[in-house]
Design brief:
- By secondary structure, this protein is mainly alpha-helical.
- Helices cover 68% and strands 0% of the residues.
- It has one domain (2-67).
- It has three helices and no strands.
- The N and C termini lie far apart (56 Å).
């Protein structure tokens, strides 16, 4: 197990692109998602409803969503 870890670390040390892929890019993604949710709960977001069956239930759901 230890030999495998050393082999991977040596590989990453010699391949800078792979080192970037396993360290910097995940760090950037974590930062991106945490900044999106930093403000808290998302409210009053625009949505689109495609009512293909035009049933009474789907119309009621559309009305309910438009009021809230």
């Amino acid at each position: 197990m230890f030999a495998s870890i050393l082999r991977e670390l040596n590989y990453l040390r010699s391949n800078k692109w792979d080192l970037c892929m396993v360290t910097l890019i995940p760090t950037f993604i974590i930062f991106l998602f945490s900044s999106m949710f930093y403000a808290g709960k998302a409210e009053h977001l625009p949505i689109a409803i495609i009512d293909q069956d035009q049933s009474e239930l789907s119309r009621n759901i559309g009305k309910y969503l438009s009021l809230n």
